[in-house]
Predict the 3D structure of the following.
Amino acid sequence: MILGYLARLYRQWRVYNRTYSELMRLDDRTLADISVTRGSIDAIARHAAKTAR
């Protein structure tokens, strides 16, 4: 049971980290094209991690 929980946490961390890194690599113009601000990247990455399977 605890291994499943730890595996899920690790998977969520990986999704968060990957999403955050990919969005931070984009320039401001590209972010604006997809209606994302630098201030909202953390929330977007958290949401992606929360909904990851």
The mean pLDDT is 97.
